[in-house]
Design brief:
Blueprint: H1 2-24, E1 30-31, E2 40-42, E3 47-52, E4 58-63, E5 69-73, E6 79-84, E7 97-103, E8 106-123, H2 125-128, H3 144-149, E9 156-160, E10 177-179, H4 190-203, E11 207-213, H5 225-230, H6 232-243, H7 258-261, H8 266-272, E12 282-286, H9 295-312, E13 320-323, H10 339-353, E14 357-360, H11 376-390, E15 403-410, E16 413-419, E17 425-427, E18 436-439, E19 445-447, E20 449-453, E21 456-460, E22 469-472, E23 482-484, E24 493-496
Helix pairs in contact: 4-11, 9-10
């Protein structure tokens, strides 16, 4: 009898499962997870409110800064969206706003919302690095205990995107908006926090930080499949090898492995694409270590990623400010190798080819035996200075160090001119500039004697009679002392002499 009843039992189970699946596929009323209480919304641009509901359901949205109640209906796919005008922030006024979202008898209320500027902060571990230590790998920012105690900035808010991998673009992402306080600040991205603090102090408007970063991740991991496949060189280098390997057949679970964090598109799909409906003031980028050997392609790769993001966020002028990787001792006791310098060169070239980009150099604040330098205060400060000068248009704001402009040779002395000299050239230790090299006719490099003469640097090397090349800070880990009097370090370079 048991065997005769088994098929009927199986049929009932199948029908029950089918009913559950069908029931689960019917959208219930919800809003996107990135829209929460405590968030900062971008000033002066429409707020896109979106979510899911049953087909034809009417959704009503009311923001307390607007007298109008906005209405829409869910599509047959169970999706709804409404755009709400947002006023400009008033410096010094930090009104806490509320948004009510209603569908039938169901009401969602978002409270303690501020209107200000929102910055997307992405990259790998140096962006992800929190203010607090995460031992044994991360020692925390300099003076982290004092920084945490003083982190009482309720007008700064953080949304940390939950780490996730997806083979296809995802509609939503995990994470929570938090108010900056000594209780929450320890797990804020240190660079993002110090950037936001400086902007807030100067502009007196709320600052929202959406941090979407993963340690050891590659640039191609944050780039869409369409972007990589449209470029034959990038497709061949990054996309094709993974599409034809066993990795493309592996189940994408939540376990973090090196193969996943460098694999193309996975973080873009799970941690950038879900942010597509948010408006941002600009983006901050701190990445490069995992593309160390991709120097010849990095300018092209990162530039395409920038345009990819700008298309996604429908803002072709979206500022993109990035950090040049710091000196690090990849090869013990060898200061002549320069593959990391080639990557820095690839990074530096981005600002020359992509509009609305700028770079913060960290050549003077590195710790060559720690790939995660603890001085994140200066990194955040320098990014903030870039934003204040270029986006906020604060006049007379110095935001970068000396950058090579031209040279001339007189009496066997090479005289170099720079832009971004500020109020004058200097060194941070009172000594002569270090890490200048001159190549002879055979290409052999000799360390040069360097001196600052007004707004020029004069170079000479006794063993070089017919110089063919100049290099500055063009090795793996040259911690530099050459800067302008405002304290911004000179940008590394190499120049062939004519």
């Amino acid at each position: 009898m048991k065997f005769k009843r088994l098929p009927l039992l199986c049929l009932l189970l199948i029908l029950q499962a089918s009913f559950v699946i069908a029931k689960d596929n019917t959208p219930s009323f919800s809003i996107a997870n990135t829209l929460q209480s405590n968030m900062v919304i971008q000033q002066g641009k429409p707020l896109h409110v979106w979510g899911k509901a049953a087909t034809g359901a009417e959704i009503m949205v009311k923001a307390d800064w607007n007298a109008i109640t906005f209405k829409t209906k869910a599509t047959k796919e169970g999706k709804w969206s409404i755009d709400i005008p947002v006023p400009n922030a008033i410096p010094g006024e930090f009104k806490k706003n509320k948004i009510s979202i209603r569908q039938g008898r169901q009401v969602r209320e978002l409270n303690n919302i501020l209107i200000g500027d929102v910055w997307l902060c992405s990259g790998q571990s140096n962006m992800a690095m929190e203010i607090r230590p995460w031992l044994p790998w991360l020692l925390g920012a300099n003076n982290f205990r004092i920084e945490i105690e003083n982190a009482n900035y309720p007008e700064i808010r953080l949304f940390k995107v939950r780490t996730d991998f997806k083979a296809l673009p995802e509609e939503d992402c995990g994470g929570n908006w938090e108010v900056c306080s000594p209780n929450t600040a320890p797990h804020f991205s240190a660079v993002a926090y110090f950037f936001a603090r400086q902007i807030f102090i100067k502009k007196k408007i709320p600052i929202g930080l959406v941090v979407s970063s993963v340690g050891a991740s590659s640039c191609q991991a944050w780039t869409s499949r369409e972007t990589l496949s449209a470029d034959s060189i990038l497709n061949k280098k990054y996309l094709f090898p993974y599409d034809t390997s066993r990795l493309s057949k592996e189940l994408l679970d939540s376990v973090v492995t090196f193969e996943k964090v460098v694999r193309p598109t996975l973080f873009y799909n799970a941690m950038i694409y879900p942010l597509r409906n948010l408006n941002f003031t600009g983006s901050l980028w701190y990445q490069g270590e995992s593309n160390r050997y991709d120097s010849s392609l990095y300018t092209q790769l990162c530039s395409k990623m920038i345009y990819n993001w700008r298309n996604l966020f429908k803002n072709q002028a979206l500022p993109f400010y990035f950090v040049q990787v710091a000196p690090y001792n990849w090869s013990q006791d060898d200061t002549k190798l320069y593959e990391y310098a080639l990557l820095r060169e690839g990074q530096s070239n981005i600002r020359k080819t992509v509009p609305h980009t700028e770079m913060a150099s960290t050549m003077d604040i590195a710790e060559p035996n720690d790939i995660h330098p603890r001085n994140k205060q200066d990194v955040g400060f320098r990014l903030a200075k870039i934003a204040l000068a270029n986006f906020y248009k604060e006049p007379n704001t110095i935001f970068q160090g000396p950058d090579y402009q031209s040279y001339k040779i007189e009496n066997n002395i090479i005289k170099i001119n720079f832009t971004n000299t500020g109020t004058g050239l200097a060194t941070n230790d009172g000594k002569e500039p270090k890490h200048f090299f001159i190549a002879d006719g055979k290409g052999v490099l000799y360390e040069a004697k360097a001196s600052i003469e007004k707004n020029e640097v004069w170079l000479s090397a006794d063993k070089v009679k017919n110089p063919t090349e100049i290099r500055y800070a063009f090795t793996n880990y040259p911690v530099t002392n050459f800067e302008n009097k405002e304290g911004f370090p000179a940008i590394p370079f190499r120049i062939k002499l004519k």
